[in-house]
Amino acid sequence: MYVYSIVDFIPPLLDGAAVTLKVMVFSMMLAFVLSFLFGFMKLSKWKIIRFIANIYIEVFRGTSLLIQLFWLYFALPLMGVNIPAMTAGILAIGLNYGAYGAEVVRSSILSVPKGQMEASIALNMSPYKRLRYIILPQALLLMIPTFGNLSIELLKGTALVSLVTLSDLTFQAMSLRTTTMQTTEIFILLLIFYFLIGYPMTLSFKWLEKKLSVGRV
Amino acid sequence: MWDSNFAISIIPDLVDAMWVTLSATVSAFFVAAALGLVWTLCKRSSLKVLVIVVSSFVEFIRTTPLLVQLFFIFYVLPEFGISLSPFVAGVIGLGLHYSTYLSEVYRSGIESVPKGQWEAGKALNFTRPATWFRIILPQALPPVFPMLGNYFIVMFKETPLLSAITLVEMMQKAKIIGSSSFRYIEAFTIVGLLFLLLSYPASLLVRHLENKTSNRFNKAA
User: Helices then strands (H, E): number in chain A?
Assistant: First the structure.
Protein backbone atom coordinates (compact mmCIF):
# COMPACT_ATOMS: atom_id res chain seq x y z
CA MET A 1 0.00 0.00 0.00
CA TYR A 2 1.25 3.43 -0.91
CA VAL A 3 2.21 5.51 2.08
CA TYR A 4 1.65 9.23 1.68
CA SER A 5 3.96 11.69 3.36
CA ILE A 6 2.65 14.53 5.43
CA VAL A 7 3.56 16.96 2.65
CA ASP A 8 0.92 15.36 0.42
CA PHE A 9 -1.76 16.24 2.93
CA ILE A 10 -0.95 19.91 3.16
CA PRO A 11 -2.42 21.24 -0.14
CA PRO A 12 -5.92 19.76 0.40
CA LEU A 13 -5.87 20.94 3.99
CA LEU A 14 -4.91 24.43 2.83
CA ASP A 15 -7.91 24.39 0.50
CA GLY A 16 -10.01 23.44 3.48
CA ALA A 17 -8.47 26.18 5.58
CA ALA A 18 -9.53 28.73 2.97
CA VAL A 19 -13.14 27.58 3.29
CA THR A 20 -12.90 27.57 7.09
CA LEU A 21 -11.53 31.12 7.06
CA LYS A 22 -14.23 32.27 4.68
CA VAL A 23 -17.00 30.84 6.84
CA MET A 24 -15.32 32.29 9.91
CA VAL A 25 -14.95 35.82 8.56
CA PHE A 26 -18.48 36.09 7.19
CA SER A 27 -20.16 34.58 10.22
CA MET A 28 -18.05 36.81 12.48
CA MET A 29 -19.29 39.86 10.63
CA LEU A 30 -22.87 38.67 10.89
CA ALA A 31 -22.47 37.82 14.58
CA PHE A 32 -20.88 41.20 15.27
CA VAL A 33 -23.75 43.13 13.69
CA LEU A 34 -26.36 40.97 15.42
CA SER A 35 -24.60 41.35 18.78
CA PHE A 36 -24.89 45.12 18.67
CA LEU A 37 -28.38 45.11 17.18
CA PHE A 38 -29.87 42.78 19.78
CA GLY A 39 -27.65 44.02 22.59
CA PHE A 40 -29.07 47.51 22.11
CA MET A 41 -32.57 46.13 21.65
CA LYS A 42 -32.32 44.48 25.04
CA LEU A 43 -31.55 47.87 26.55
CA SER A 44 -34.51 49.54 24.83
CA LYS A 45 -37.13 51.26 26.92
CA TRP A 46 -39.92 49.57 24.96
CA LYS A 47 -41.00 46.27 26.39
CA ILE A 48 -41.91 44.75 23.04
CA ILE A 49 -38.43 45.35 21.61
CA ARG A 50 -36.79 43.86 24.69
CA PHE A 51 -39.15 40.92 24.36
CA ILE A 52 -38.19 40.26 20.73
CA ALA A 53 -34.50 40.47 21.60
CA ASN A 54 -35.04 38.08 24.49
CA ILE A 55 -36.71 35.49 22.28
CA TYR A 56 -33.87 35.63 19.78
CA ILE A 57 -31.21 35.38 22.47
CA GLU A 58 -32.81 32.59 24.47
CA VAL A 59 -33.75 30.48 21.45
CA PHE A 60 -30.32 30.62 19.88
CA ARG A 61 -28.46 30.16 23.14
CA GLY A 62 -30.84 27.52 24.44
CA THR A 63 -30.53 25.13 21.50
CA SER A 64 -27.32 23.82 20.03
CA LEU A 65 -25.44 25.21 17.08
CA LEU A 66 -25.56 21.81 15.40
CA ILE A 67 -29.34 21.66 15.67
CA GLN A 68 -29.67 25.14 14.22
CA LEU A 69 -27.34 24.25 11.40
CA PHE A 70 -29.18 21.04 10.56
CA TRP A 71 -32.47 22.81 10.82
CA LEU A 72 -31.39 25.40 8.28
CA TYR A 73 -29.80 22.88 5.98
CA PHE A 74 -32.08 19.84 6.15
CA ALA A 75 -35.43 21.09 7.43
CA LEU A 76 -35.87 24.40 5.62
CA PRO A 77 -35.61 22.91 2.08
CA LEU A 78 -38.63 20.74 2.93
CA MET A 79 -40.56 23.95 3.51
CA GLY A 80 -39.52 25.14 0.08
CA VAL A 81 -36.61 27.33 1.13
CA ASN A 82 -33.38 26.08 -0.39
CA ILE A 83 -30.16 27.59 0.84
CA PRO A 84 -26.68 26.49 -0.15
CA ALA A 85 -24.47 24.85 2.48
CA MET A 86 -22.18 27.86 2.68
CA THR A 87 -25.04 30.25 3.40
CA ALA A 88 -26.61 27.85 5.88
CA GLY A 89 -23.27 27.54 7.70
CA ILE A 90 -22.65 31.27 7.86
CA LEU A 91 -26.23 31.99 8.92
CA ALA A 92 -26.32 29.34 11.64
CA ILE A 93 -22.95 30.27 13.12
CA GLY A 94 -23.62 34.01 12.83
CA LEU A 95 -27.05 33.74 14.44
CA ASN A 96 -25.79 31.48 17.21
CA TYR A 97 -22.78 33.55 18.22
CA GLY A 98 -24.71 36.79 17.66
CA ALA A 99 -26.97 35.69 20.51
CA TYR A 100 -23.98 35.19 22.80
CA GLY A 101 -22.48 38.47 21.62
CA ALA A 102 -25.70 40.38 22.33
CA GLU A 103 -25.39 39.44 25.99
CA VAL A 104 -21.80 40.66 25.99
CA VAL A 105 -22.77 44.01 24.46
CA ARG A 106 -25.64 44.45 26.88
CA SER A 107 -23.66 43.62 30.00
CA SER A 108 -20.65 45.72 28.95
CA ILE A 109 -22.79 48.78 28.37
CA LEU A 110 -24.50 48.25 31.70
CA SER A 111 -21.20 47.97 33.50
CA VAL A 112 -20.03 51.42 32.45
CA PRO A 113 -20.38 53.36 35.73
CA LYS A 114 -23.68 55.22 36.02
CA GLY A 115 -21.94 58.50 36.80
CA GLN A 116 -20.60 58.61 33.24
CA MET A 117 -24.08 58.70 31.80
CA GLU A 118 -25.18 61.27 34.37
CA ALA A 119 -22.15 63.43 33.68
CA SER A 120 -22.83 63.42 29.94
CA ILE A 121 -26.48 64.34 30.53
CA ALA A 122 -25.35 67.13 32.85
CA LEU A 123 -23.04 68.37 30.09
CA ASN A 124 -26.05 68.54 27.79
CA MET A 125 -24.78 66.04 25.25
CA SER A 126 -27.23 64.60 22.76
CA PRO A 127 -28.12 60.90 23.16
CA TYR A 128 -26.02 60.07 20.09
CA LYS A 129 -23.00 61.95 21.42
CA ARG A 130 -23.38 60.35 24.83
CA LEU A 131 -23.26 56.92 23.27
CA ARG A 132 -20.55 57.69 20.73
CA TYR A 133 -18.09 59.62 22.87
CA ILE A 134 -18.78 58.55 26.45
CA ILE A 135 -20.41 55.15 26.77
CA LEU A 136 -19.21 53.12 23.79
CA PRO A 137 -15.47 53.86 24.11
CA GLN A 138 -15.59 52.55 27.65
CA ALA A 139 -17.93 49.66 26.92
CA LEU A 140 -15.92 48.49 23.90
CA LEU A 141 -12.87 48.05 26.04
CA LEU A 142 -14.84 45.82 28.38
CA MET A 143 -16.12 43.78 25.43
CA ILE A 144 -12.75 42.98 23.89
CA PRO A 145 -11.66 40.06 26.10
CA THR A 146 -15.05 38.36 25.86
CA PHE A 147 -15.31 38.99 22.14
CA GLY A 148 -11.84 37.48 21.84
CA ASN A 149 -13.01 34.31 23.57
CA LEU A 150 -16.16 34.22 21.48
CA SER A 151 -14.11 34.51 18.28
CA ILE A 152 -12.15 31.42 19.24
CA GLU A 153 -15.41 29.64 20.03
CA LEU A 154 -16.71 30.71 16.64
CA LEU A 155 -13.62 29.40 14.87
CA LYS A 156 -14.12 26.06 16.60
CA GLY A 157 -17.79 26.17 15.71
CA THR A 158 -16.97 26.34 12.01
CA ALA A 159 -15.81 22.71 12.17
CA LEU A 160 -19.49 21.78 12.31
CA VAL A 161 -20.10 22.94 8.74
CA SER A 162 -18.20 19.85 7.61
CA LEU A 163 -21.30 17.92 8.70
CA VAL A 164 -23.43 19.75 6.13
CA THR A 165 -21.06 18.79 3.29
CA LEU A 166 -19.09 22.04 3.17
CA SER A 167 -15.47 21.23 2.32
CA ASP A 168 -13.78 23.01 5.21
CA LEU A 169 -10.66 21.84 7.07
CA THR A 170 -12.41 19.06 8.97
CA PHE A 171 -14.24 17.85 5.87
CA GLN A 172 -11.01 17.71 3.88
CA ALA A 173 -9.33 15.76 6.65
CA MET A 174 -12.20 13.30 6.80
CA SER A 175 -12.09 12.68 3.07
CA LEU A 176 -8.28 12.34 3.12
CA ARG A 177 -8.76 9.79 5.84
CA THR A 178 -11.13 7.66 3.79
CA THR A 179 -8.82 7.69 0.78
CA THR A 180 -5.47 7.12 2.53
CA MET A 181 -6.41 5.54 5.89
CA GLN A 182 -3.50 7.41 7.52
CA THR A 183 -5.76 8.63 10.28
CA THR A 184 -3.15 9.53 12.86
CA GLU A 185 -1.03 11.86 10.73
CA ILE A 186 -4.04 13.55 9.18
CA PHE A 187 -5.79 14.30 12.43
CA ILE A 188 -2.66 15.53 14.17
CA LEU A 189 -2.07 17.84 11.22
CA LEU A 190 -5.69 18.96 11.36
CA LEU A 191 -5.43 19.88 15.04
CA ILE A 192 -2.25 21.81 14.31
CA PHE A 193 -3.97 23.71 11.48
CA TYR A 194 -6.75 24.83 13.80
CA PHE A 195 -4.25 25.82 16.44
CA LEU A 196 -2.29 27.84 13.89
CA ILE A 197 -5.43 29.78 13.01
CA GLY A 198 -6.70 30.14 16.57
CA TYR A 199 -3.60 30.93 18.55
CA PRO A 200 -2.64 34.09 16.63
CA MET A 201 -6.22 35.23 17.18
CA THR A 202 -5.85 34.73 20.93
CA LEU A 203 -2.56 36.62 20.90
CA SER A 204 -3.90 39.52 18.86
CA PHE A 205 -6.90 39.99 21.11
CA LYS A 206 -4.57 40.07 24.11
CA TRP A 207 -2.41 42.61 22.31
CA LEU A 208 -5.43 44.73 21.40
CA GLU A 209 -6.68 44.68 24.95
CA LYS A 210 -3.31 45.78 26.25
CA LYS A 211 -2.91 48.49 23.64
CA LEU A 212 -6.34 49.98 24.12
CA SER A 213 -6.13 50.01 27.89
CA VAL A 214 -2.93 52.06 27.88
CA GLY A 215 -3.41 55.16 29.98
CA ARG A 216 -6.70 53.96 31.44
CA VAL A 217 -7.46 52.88 34.93
CA MET B 1 -44.85 20.75 5.72
CA TRP B 2 -45.39 20.25 9.42
CA ASP B 3 -47.36 17.13 10.33
CA SER B 4 -48.54 17.12 13.93
CA ASN B 5 -49.54 13.47 14.05
CA PHE B 6 -46.12 12.43 12.84
CA ALA B 7 -44.49 14.84 15.27
CA ILE B 8 -46.36 13.32 18.20
CA SER B 9 -45.56 9.79 17.07
CA ILE B 10 -41.80 10.37 17.20
CA ILE B 11 -41.70 12.06 20.61
CA PRO B 12 -41.34 8.80 22.62
CA ASP B 13 -38.32 7.77 20.53
CA LEU B 14 -36.68 11.15 21.01
CA VAL B 15 -37.37 11.19 24.73
CA ASP B 16 -35.75 7.75 25.00
CA ALA B 17 -32.68 9.13 23.26
CA MET B 18 -32.73 12.08 25.66
CA TRP B 19 -31.58 9.74 28.43
CA VAL B 20 -28.46 8.95 26.47
CA THR B 21 -27.88 12.68 26.01
CA LEU B 22 -28.35 13.33 29.72
CA SER B 23 -26.17 10.48 30.92
CA ALA B 24 -23.43 11.53 28.51
CA THR B 25 -23.65 15.08 29.85
CA VAL B 26 -23.49 14.03 33.49
CA SER B 27 -20.59 11.61 32.97
CA ALA B 28 -18.65 14.12 30.88
CA PHE B 29 -19.24 16.78 33.51
CA PHE B 30 -17.67 14.59 36.19
CA VAL B 31 -14.67 13.95 33.96
CA ALA B 32 -14.37 17.68 33.28
CA ALA B 33 -14.75 18.63 36.94
CA ALA B 34 -12.06 16.20 38.04
CA LEU B 35 -9.59 16.89 35.21
CA GLY B 36 -10.17 20.64 35.50
CA LEU B 37 -9.10 20.55 39.12
CA VAL B 38 -6.01 18.55 38.16
CA TRP B 39 -5.04 21.18 35.55
CA THR B 40 -5.54 23.99 38.04
CA LEU B 41 -3.43 22.34 40.69
CA CYS B 42 -0.70 21.46 38.16
CA LYS B 43 -0.61 25.05 36.91
CA ARG B 44 0.06 26.25 40.44
CA SER B 45 2.74 23.68 41.12
CA SER B 46 6.28 24.79 41.91
CA LEU B 47 7.59 22.48 39.18
CA LYS B 48 8.24 24.80 36.21
CA VAL B 49 8.20 22.00 33.62
CA LEU B 50 4.82 20.75 34.77
CA VAL B 51 3.38 24.26 34.61
CA ILE B 52 4.60 24.80 31.04
CA VAL B 53 3.49 21.38 29.79
CA VAL B 54 0.03 21.61 31.35
CA SER B 55 -0.49 25.23 30.29
CA SER B 56 0.36 24.52 26.66
CA PHE B 57 -1.75 21.39 26.63
CA VAL B 58 -4.73 23.31 28.02
CA GLU B 59 -4.22 26.13 25.52
CA PHE B 60 -4.07 23.62 22.67
CA ILE B 61 -7.26 21.84 23.73
CA ARG B 62 -9.08 25.15 24.11
CA THR B 63 -8.07 26.40 20.69
CA THR B 64 -8.98 23.33 18.64
CA PRO B 65 -12.55 22.24 17.85
CA LEU B 66 -14.30 19.69 20.03
CA LEU B 67 -15.55 17.93 16.89
CA VAL B 68 -12.00 17.29 15.72
CA GLN B 69 -10.97 16.11 19.16
CA LEU B 70 -13.87 13.67 19.16
CA PHE B 71 -12.81 12.35 15.76
CA PHE B 72 -9.28 12.06 17.07
CA ILE B 73 -10.31 10.00 20.10
CA PHE B 74 -12.71 7.88 18.12
CA TYR B 75 -10.61 7.21 15.01
CA VAL B 76 -6.96 7.64 16.00
CA LEU B 77 -6.81 5.85 19.35
CA PRO B 78 -7.93 2.51 17.83
CA GLU B 79 -4.76 2.61 15.70
CA PHE B 80 -2.85 2.36 18.97
CA GLY B 81 -5.00 -0.50 20.19
CA ILE B 82 -7.41 1.56 22.27
CA SER B 83 -10.90 1.01 20.90
CA LEU B 84 -13.58 2.96 22.69
CA SER B 85 -17.34 2.77 22.34
CA PRO B 86 -18.95 5.95 20.97
CA PHE B 87 -20.33 6.72 24.42
CA VAL B 88 -16.99 6.42 26.21
CA ALA B 89 -15.13 8.29 23.46
CA GLY B 90 -17.76 11.03 23.58
CA VAL B 91 -17.63 11.34 27.35
CA ILE B 92 -13.83 11.54 27.34
CA GLY B 93 -13.77 14.06 24.49
CA LEU B 94 -16.45 16.31 25.91
CA GLY B 95 -15.02 15.99 29.42
CA LEU B 96 -11.47 16.73 28.32
CA HIS B 97 -12.49 19.73 26.24
CA TYR B 98 -14.51 21.36 29.00
CA SER B 99 -12.01 20.47 31.72
CA THR B 100 -9.88 23.28 30.28
CA TYR B 101 -12.75 25.71 30.80
CA LEU B 102 -13.53 24.46 34.29
CA SER B 103 -9.88 24.84 35.19
CA GLU B 104 -10.27 28.60 34.59
CA VAL B 105 -13.35 28.61 36.81
CA TYR B 106 -11.43 26.91 39.63
CA ARG B 107 -8.58 29.35 39.16
CA SER B 108 -10.86 32.33 39.64
CA GLY B 109 -12.25 30.71 42.78
CA ILE B 110 -8.81 30.00 44.19
CA GLU B 111 -7.54 33.48 43.45
CA SER B 112 -10.40 35.01 45.37
CA VAL B 113 -9.32 33.24 48.57
CA PRO B 114 -7.48 35.86 50.65
CA LYS B 115 -3.74 35.40 50.89
CA GLY B 116 -3.93 35.38 54.66
CA GLN B 117 -5.53 31.95 54.46
CA TRP B 118 -2.35 30.52 52.93
CA GLU B 119 -0.25 32.22 55.54
CA ALA B 120 -2.52 30.95 58.29
CA GLY B 121 -2.13 27.43 56.93
CA LYS B 122 1.60 27.79 57.01
CA ALA B 123 1.56 29.33 60.48
CA LEU B 124 -0.50 26.42 61.78
CA ASN B 125 2.03 24.01 60.28
CA PHE B 126 -0.37 22.45 57.76
CA THR B 127 1.30 20.43 55.01
CA ARG B 128 0.78 21.72 51.47
CA PRO B 129 -1.85 19.11 50.54
CA ALA B 130 -3.62 19.74 53.82
CA THR B 131 -3.63 23.49 53.17
CA TRP B 132 -5.11 22.84 49.72
CA PHE B 133 -7.78 20.40 50.71
CA ARG B 134 -8.73 21.61 54.17
CA ILE B 135 -8.36 25.37 53.90
CA ILE B 136 -8.23 26.70 50.34
CA LEU B 137 -10.54 24.49 48.29
CA PRO B 138 -13.41 24.45 50.80
CA GLN B 139 -13.46 28.24 50.47
CA ALA B 140 -12.66 28.47 46.77
CA LEU B 141 -15.20 25.99 45.41
CA PRO B 142 -18.64 26.96 46.80
CA PRO B 143 -18.60 30.47 45.27
CA VAL B 144 -17.90 29.04 41.81
CA PHE B 145 -20.66 26.39 41.88
CA PRO B 146 -23.03 28.55 39.81
CA MET B 147 -20.32 29.00 37.16
CA LEU B 148 -19.85 25.24 37.11
CA GLY B 149 -23.60 24.98 36.61
CA ASN B 150 -23.35 27.26 33.60
CA TYR B 151 -20.75 25.00 32.05
CA PHE B 152 -22.93 22.01 32.76
CA ILE B 153 -25.59 23.61 30.57
CA VAL B 154 -23.03 24.50 27.91
CA MET B 155 -21.85 20.89 27.85
CA PHE B 156 -25.41 19.66 27.60
CA LYS B 157 -25.87 21.80 24.52
CA GLU B 158 -22.67 20.43 22.98
CA THR B 159 -23.75 16.78 23.19
CA PRO B 160 -25.33 16.79 19.68
CA LEU B 161 -21.73 16.72 18.45
CA LEU B 162 -21.48 13.17 19.76
CA SER B 163 -23.82 12.18 16.94
CA ALA B 164 -20.85 12.71 14.62
CA ILE B 165 -19.11 9.73 16.23
CA THR B 166 -22.25 7.62 15.80
CA LEU B 167 -23.58 7.84 19.35
CA VAL B 168 -27.36 7.54 19.15
CA GLU B 169 -28.38 10.49 21.30
CA MET B 170 -31.23 12.87 20.48
CA MET B 171 -29.63 14.40 17.41
CA GLN B 172 -28.62 11.10 15.86
CA LYS B 173 -32.07 9.70 16.59
CA ALA B 174 -33.59 12.70 14.81
CA LYS B 175 -31.30 12.12 11.83
CA ILE B 176 -32.29 8.45 11.70
CA ILE B 177 -35.97 9.36 11.87
CA GLY B 178 -35.44 12.01 9.23
CA SER B 179 -33.63 9.80 6.79
CA SER B 180 -36.08 6.90 7.11
CA SER B 181 -39.20 9.02 6.73
CA PHE B 182 -37.85 11.97 4.73
CA ARG B 183 -39.37 14.22 7.33
CA TYR B 184 -36.64 16.28 8.92
CA ILE B 185 -38.66 19.29 10.03
CA GLU B 186 -40.56 17.58 12.83
CA ALA B 187 -37.61 15.62 14.21
CA PHE B 188 -35.14 18.53 14.27
CA THR B 189 -37.72 20.98 15.59
CA ILE B 190 -38.69 18.69 18.44
CA VAL B 191 -35.07 18.06 19.35
CA GLY B 192 -34.51 21.82 19.38
CA LEU B 193 -37.56 22.33 21.56
CA LEU B 194 -36.48 19.57 23.95
CA PHE B 195 -33.10 21.23 24.32
CA LEU B 196 -34.73 24.59 24.95
CA LEU B 197 -37.18 23.01 27.38
CA LEU B 198 -34.34 21.57 29.44
CA SER B 199 -31.68 24.24 29.14
CA TYR B 200 -33.79 27.36 29.66
CA PRO B 201 -35.21 26.40 33.08
CA ALA B 202 -31.76 25.13 34.02
CA SER B 203 -30.20 28.47 33.15
CA LEU B 204 -32.85 30.29 35.19
CA LEU B 205 -32.01 28.02 38.11
CA VAL B 206 -28.31 28.79 37.76
CA ARG B 207 -29.05 32.51 37.60
CA HIS B 208 -31.05 32.18 40.81
CA LEU B 209 -28.18 30.29 42.45
CA GLU B 210 -25.79 32.97 41.25
CA ASN B 211 -27.77 35.72 42.93
CA LYS B 212 -28.06 33.70 46.09
CA THR B 213 -24.39 32.86 46.37
CA SER B 214 -23.23 36.35 45.47
CA ASN B 215 -25.47 37.75 48.20
CA ARG B 216 -24.17 35.25 50.71
CA PHE B 217 -20.51 35.74 49.94
CA ASN B 218 -20.74 39.48 49.66
CA LYS B 219 -22.35 39.65 53.05
CA ALA B 220 -19.59 37.55 54.53
CA ALA B 221 -16.91 39.81 53.06
Answer: 9, 0
